[in-house]
Fold:
Amino acid sequence: MIRATNLSKYYGGKRALGPVSFEIADGETVGFLGLNGAGKTTALRILACDLRPSGGSIEIGGVDGVAEPHEVRKKIGFLPENPPLYQDMVVSDYLKFAGELRGMTREELKKRLTEVLEITDLTDVASDIIHTLSHGYRQRVGLAQAIIHNPKFLILDEPTRGLDPVQIVEMRNLIHDLKQSHTVLISSHILTEISQTCDRLLILGKGKLLGTGSEHELATKEGEIRQITVTIRGGSGSDADFRPTARTLLEAVDGVSSVADPYDYGGGTTFVLSTKRDCRAEVSRAVVEGKLDLIKLDYARSELENTFIRLVGGVDASN
Structure:
């Protein structure tokens, strides 16, 4: 288990983090979500014993991270935002070097190196010099050094930063595989990456912990919002502007909390409805019974995005 209690970090008189408290259970994959400058990297560096906190305590796997940082590092694999790569080294030599720094024997390294190269899909480039690799492969090498000693806990800071769409999918799949045997803590400001990868979220803003829980739990606490987009045409034989009538009948549908100003799109007029539940059936019925032509009806849940905006947007920088 990872436990942080009243964790804080100051640079001079400027607060970068805290105080924050949270726990991560064994086997969980948890995401640190926040805007740039929210304190995510600071928190991860403290947990990885790469940065000493100004106050508070951390405990990882039953070991005090402040009192015994070297013992904690044996239990952790850390992928910083900028991986610590020696560009002139061969991939396999670099990973052996990383393993030796973690106290691995030659026998342990010989077996583990083959496994890690396969896990990270680096076998074909094991004899290549690191600086000749693409950014995506260098990111894989960074991840490989984090898992070479088979740690129980993985801390990944912006693991998909700078990757192209194909590489992002590959990295996401790799993290999904690692979740099966590791406790994983991931930092990102990309909502979709966190949503698709993590079991639980910790939302940070200006050094404060603003919310914690699963995507659904956070959305429920903050008031879950759904959006329905309705594209319609006016009734046949009528040149009159049907928008006021359409808006009135949509606002009257049970479950619709508000209707935004319509806009023309795709040969019709689109209305965006905010709702508290899935009321697509009632909306479509209202449109048809109002003698209007229903062209398109979409339902999109935007729980995480809405929750994130509400939480982060509400931060007072003076606190």
Notes: The CA atoms of residues 4 and 58 lie 5 Å apart. Confidence is low (pLDDT under 50) at residues 235-239, 315-319. Residues 226-301 form a domain with the Alpha-Beta Plaits fold (CATH 3.30.70.1340). The two ends are 30 Å apart (CA to CA).
